[in-house]
Amino acid sequence: MVHPPQPRTSSPALHPYITATVQKLLPDPATRILDLGCGSGALLERLLLMGYVNLVGVDISPPAFGGRIHYQQADLDDFQLDRPDASFDLVLAVEVIEHIENQGLFLRELARLLKPGGLALFTTPILHSAQAKILFALTDRLKQFDT
User: Fold this and answer.
1) Ramachandran area for residue 19 (φ above 0: left; ψ -120 to 50: alpha; else beta)
2) pTM (predicted TM-score)
């Protein structure tokens, strides 16, 4: 079941960029993917439509029903997931790490969940430079996603 579009909270180029990166680095549809701070599940739903089948989303308030996507409730500031070590090939944290109070605990649990040689992909908005702030204000694009 695909959820209706939710209000956008990040750059419109962000999810297409991430899904293209995932497809390039890990094209196997059986790739086990964990999305930490998944919000509405929009990124996982994009990955599902691309053929990925082993998808887990974690959020403090995840969607109630995910169909073929498994959602789990967890507070990422006190993050311990009831999953075995090395459960995932890829862990995503999209626009999340800057909100985490105890980043050391978060990263330790992420490392435990990631299989040896697995990948973690983080994004975070960087709006400190005047150029980045102006670009975002005028175009609603983040600097790292410009041409």
Assistant:
1) alpha
2) 0.82
